[in-house]
Write a structure and sequence with these properties.
The protein is of the alpha/beta class and 311 residues long. The protein is 49% helix and 10% strand. The chain has two domains: 8-116 and 192-309, 3-Layer(aba) Sandwich (Rossmann fold); 126-189, Histone, subunit A (Orthogonal Bundle), CATH 1.10.20.140. The longest helix is centred in the last third of the chain and has 24 residues, at 262-285.
């Protein structure tokens, strides 16, 4: 059983370019706090310019955690984030410092706050076993899969569409692998969640957000984003590596290979970033207990208040 942690003092979430880092830094300086990054891209050591990492001066002034954890060649998951974040939070709290969670990766934040299912290890590889299971079940009609799941785990079957073959196979695979209905398996092995004292979602007016995104992309390109990627490729980095899935990096690779002009590159990254920000806004809107805050009006050092959002 995971040992419960003390409540986190402050969570600052929201879409990219909304001012999360600036607010977190101001609050941490004013309240003797340390920042735990909730960003799935800032964990990669070799990419910095395009991921918006805090400057060296900011990191020296206020300790930041969960930045530069692994190589771009390594995949990083929500489960790994929860493990690393809980470790960092425990360390910060042991030194009687305040904790600020700051970032825009909603999946990671939800996994940390609500708890994530960590299934027990098996002798083999669940991923490989799952692939073999799918091959063995290829001839089984989807309707038969649904009927079987309804017989062993009615709640899980009711939660799935009868035609969702992928999730039906996943549920039945877990049942056959562990001998427990998935509903019971998830209940038994869900990790401890995390409580927070204040949960803020920065919600700038959309036109201002899009203007900020445009400026940010231009600043990153001027700060050496293209040169960063060029140096990585020259050193032998594989553009198929997980780290290159970071927003905008594949577009920079396309520019370096001659498929995009400099102007087209900037426009493509800005458009993709706006689309990503829109998805972030939707995600955070449905997180329980969050307060919507206009970053233009919020006191950067006090605990800003706003309209409650989410269910």
């Amino acid at each position: 059983m995971v040992r419960p942690l003390e409540a986190v003092d402050l969570v600052i979430a929201g879409p990219t370019a909304s001012g999360k880092s600036r607010m977190a830094l101001a609050w941490a300086r004013a309240h003797d706090g340390e920042i735990v990054s909730v960003d799935s891209r800032q964990v990669y050591r070799e990419i910095s310019v395009g991921t918006g990492k805090p400057s060296r001066a900011d990191r020296e002034g206020v300790p930041h955690h969960l930045i530069d954890l692994c190589s771009i060649r390594e995949p990083y998951s929500a489960g790994a984030f929860v493990r690393d974040a809980r470790r960092a939070i425990e360390e910060i709290q042991s030194r009687k410092k305040r904790v600020v969670l700051c970032g825009g990766t909603g999946l990671y934040l939800r996994a940390l706050l609500d708890g994530i299912v960590v299934l027990p290890e098996t002798p083999g590889s669940p991923a490989l076993e799952g692939e073999e299971y799918r091959r063995r079940m290829e001839a089984v009609p989807t309707a038969v899969l649904y009927e079987r799941l309804a017989g062993v785990d009615p709640p899980r079957a009711q939660a799935l569409h009868p035609g969702d073959r992928v999730r039906l196979l996943r549920a039945l695979f877990l049942y056959d692998l562990y001998g427990l209905p998935p509903t019971e398996l998830y209940r038994r092995y869900r990790g401890e969640g995390l409580s927070v004292r204040s949960f803020l979602v920065l919600s700038p007016e959309r036109s201002r957000l899009y203007e900020a995104i445009g400026r940010r992309v231009e600043e990153m390109l001027s700060a050496g984003w293209i040169e960063e990627v060029e140096a990585l490729l020259s050193s032998g980095a594989d553009p198929a590596s997980p780290g290159f899935d970071s927003l905008g990096y594949r577009e920079v690779v396309a520019h370096l290979s001659g498929r995009l002009t400099r102007q087209e590159l900037q426009a493509a990254i800005a458009q993709k970033t706006r689309q990503y920000a829109k998805r972030q806004v939707t995600w955070f809107r449905h997180m329980r207990g969050a307060l919507a805050v206009d970053p233009e009006r919020a006191d950067q050092t006090a605990l800003p208040m706003g309209d409650r959002i989410g269910p």
